[in-house]
Amino acid sequence: MQLNKPFATVTPTLDGDVLAVLASADVTFTISQVQRILTTASGEGIRKVLNRLTAQGVVLHDEVGRTHIYRLNAEHLAAGPIMALSRLNSTFLSRLEQHLDGWGPTLRYAAVFGSAATGKMRLDSDIDLFLVHGADSDDDAWEQRLTELARLVAAWTGNDGRIVEYTEGQFRAAAAAGEPLLDDVSKQGLTVAGTRAWFNAQRRSARRS
């Protein structure tokens, strides 16, 4: 799946893209506003989708002067599933946080990085995970956790999980050497365990030493 295009999991058509826009905020949209957000869709295509969704009752249509405005019908039976689909990215991150919370203090930090964090996923993209763990972790137990984490990511999304892991010592050595990957995690990573403050403090400390 593409976390940045959650409706593509159920429909590859323009309908999903339009619903994603309408579900993004509890406001009205004009056809031109939807088109500016989607960029590649034609105004006529968007109009046809909105008319079809209005006929289904999923979208509410009104006119203000000569302007046609549309909004998601929050009371429609399908509104709940539509909103749930629109939140797939945040749902994925929440599941990760909840799962990693059970790993205890041996996990110092974790973040999603790469295309899953920047909103540029392709259908075949891996989901990149960055982890730092303490040297006191049991090797066998740690490997089992990594295997289970990769399995869960694939089960939840259909995408392979690519896990990059460091011990604290390896992390500090990489930071001191100016490892570019750490810049990517710092600038674009989405923290799912530990704190960004800890990550940045460790990097600064390693660079000074």
TrEMBL record:
Domain annotation Polymerase nucleotidyl transferase: ranges: 110-139
A Pfam family reported for this protein in Swiss-Prot or TrEMBL: NTP_transf_2
Annotated Gene3D superfamilies: Beta Polymerase, domain 2
Sample GO molecular function, one term: nucleotidyltransferase activity
InterPro entries xref list: NT_sf, Polymerase_NTP_transf_dom
Matching CDD domains: NT_KNTase_like (cd05403)
Official protein name in the record: Putative transcriptional regulator
Organism (species): Gordonia humi
